[in-house]
Amino acid sequence: MSYSEEVEKLLKSGAKNLGEKNYEQAVEDYSKACGLHQEETGEIEPDLFMMYGKALYESGVSQSDVLGGQEITSEKIEEAKGEDDDEGDAFQFNDLAAEEFAEAGGEEEEQSEEEEGPSVEEDEEEEQGEEQEEQEEEKTDMELAWEILEIARGLYEKKLDDNKAEESKLTIPYLTSDKDTPTNEYVKTLKSLSEVYDLLGEVSLESEHFPQAASDLESSLEMRKKLYDNDYSGLIGESHFKLSLALEFCLEDDTAKEKAANHIKAAIKILKNDSQKNPDKKKENDEIIGSLSERLDEIGSNAEDAINKQKQDMLQDILGSSKGTELLVKLSSSPLIPTPGPSKVNDLTSMVKKRKSKSKDNNVKRTKK
Q1: Distances in Å between the alpha carbon of 2 and those of 14, 37, 40, 218, 360?
Q2: What burial letters (b/e) apply to 136-165, b meaning 16+ CB within 10 Å?
């Protein structure tokens, strides 16, 4: 795609500033490039919007501690949840304090209103209006990145549909290597679309929207599997790893941990294949494999701990409740809970651990805690 001289200057400046980590200026350059091109042609160019979205994402990461310097861990997720809880309590406390303060100073407020007249109320309304406008206008770089990348995604998908007929003429993989530049319009669009989905996934990871991140990263992975060699592509390996990271924190999905482990294994396999093909990269690849193997062990350990904790919580709920007998009767048909009887607590725990099969007819949905 050819651009005007002014747009090209802005793009070069944006790339330079992005490389030098001058993110604020890079965002401004790409924003101006998008606007100027639209003024000149009357069209929205998805390539420009993808560059703009990427700059916004990089700017957002530079201001964040989640992916921009610290690794996401289960401890950090719990800490984040704890902070949210604390903030919620503080908010309620402040509301209560405000009400008590208003009641205690009610007489003074009434006197003020009598002395100053309606101008105080008008000033308060005006200030509230200004604050509301500022809040509506203010968006984080991550929020803007998501919106801009979503526009690019929609445009690329429409373009891909327009060239759908070309797909039947192609042979998978469409490209000879990760660095191969596509000449076919369908392949070019698919490559760009895979990059947009990858960026959207990273934005959601950064924002801790893990199910959305998993969905977008999976879309990117499926496209890359068509574009590149599945046994050697570093981009496919990268997609496997990012997807494993998103799945690891999809806590509402009971199979997510297993899927995450499988994607890490797939990434390790690609690195081993690359080492055989390129012996000079073996040392570097072995270091990455070591890190991935550690993460694989952590996922397996966390998954086992989570299952054991779930079982213990269920038993405590049943045996510690005042309605324990009633619950035992209701759950007696469950594959996890044995029929109530004179057995000891230790025996009951043992039976839960040893139970392997599940009855399709008597399956009990576990309550998420």
Answers
A1: 17, 11, 12, 32, 60
A2: eeeeebbebbbebbebbbebbeebbeeeee
Report how far residue 76's alpha carbon sits from residue 106's, in angstroms, rounded to the nearest whole number. Answer: 44
Give the type of residue at 26: A
Q: pLDDT by residue (tens digit) across 300-352?
A: 775 455 445 444 554 455 445 444 444 334 333 334 333 333 333 333 333 33
In angstroms, rounded to a whole number, what is the distance separating the alpha carbons of residues 78 and 200?
24
Model-wide pTM > 0.85: no
- Alpha carbon distances (Å) from 313 to 132, 262, 316, 319, 356: 44, 28, 5, 10, 19
CA atoms within 13 A on the CB side of 147: 6
In angstroms, rounded to a whole number, what is the distance separating the alpha carbons of residues 128 and 252? Answer: 39
Residue with tokens 């879309």, as numbered in its chain = 219
User: In the structure encoding, which two tokens stand for residue 101, read together?
Assistant: 């303060």
Residue closest to 294 by CA, chosen among 255, 261, 253: 261
